[in-house]
Specification:
Layout: E1 3-5, H1 13-17, E2 23-28, E3 31-36, H2 40-59, E4 67-71, E5 75-77, E6 81-84, E7 88-92, E8 111-116, H3 121-135, E9 139-144, E10 149-156, E11 159-166
Length: about 190
């Protein structure tokens, strides 16, 4: 469940650090959003997607390389956003040549992926996706774990344009990672019996 914390003062990173165990948060445009930590199915899907991209796009193994691929990065962006953390994100190295070591990332990602779950669905779709469009993220994927569906978007004239939907494809080419085929079917946790 997502909650917002109205406050007379702007939330800070100290407010995030003070959250109780099992609760995570983001400060987007001056509002603190809190939620329970994602469960294993959610985390596993993010890991599978990130792992599929890491070899060919981050390391350049059997692919073009040229990206940083990171799961749950801490990002500070414009408009009082102290911390936003997509489930998976990527930056072209030509835009972010060096990986920040001991500081937050302050460069808008070129691509993000949000994994929808019962506790994050509304927040991801109603808060994060519009925010990503406002700050200029070029590509976004939304993965629905329960439905086993990935929807890919490209930002055009400040709005998201759907470029494809995927589910059980084993050789999908999905922007911006269409230089190699991706096994979307392998990203989903086993179906419930």
């Amino acid at each position: 469940m997502i909650t917002t914390k109205p406050s007379m003062k702007a939330p800070t990173l100290a407010d995030l650090d003070a959250l109780p165990p099992g609760v995570v948060g983001e400060i987007i445009e001056g509002v603190l959003y809190t939620m329970t930590k994602p469960r294993m199915r959610h985390q596993r899907t993010g890991l599978e997607i990130g792992s599929s991209l890491l070899g060919p796009f981050d390391h350049g193994h059997h692919g073009p390389g040229g990206w940083w691929i990171v799961t749950e990065p801490g990002i500070e962006l414009p408009n009082e956003t102290k911390e936003i953390s997509p489930d998976v994100a990527g930056w072209r190295r030509e835009r972010m040549p060096e990986m920040p070591v001991d500081e937050p990332i302050r460069v808008v990602p070129d691509w993000v992926c949000e994994i929808l779950s019962k506790t994050t669905r509304r927040h991801d779709q109603l808060v994060k996706m519009p925010y990503y469009a406002r700050v200029g993220v070029a590509y976004a994927w939304v993965a629905d774990v329960d439905e086993r569906v990935l929807i890919a978007y490209r930002l055009e004239s400040g709005a998201w344009r759907m470029t494809g939907t995927y589910s059980d494809e084993t050789e999908a080419r999905i922007e911006p990672f269409d230089a190699v085929t991706l096994n979307v079917a392998s990203w989903w946790p086993p179906s419930k019996p």
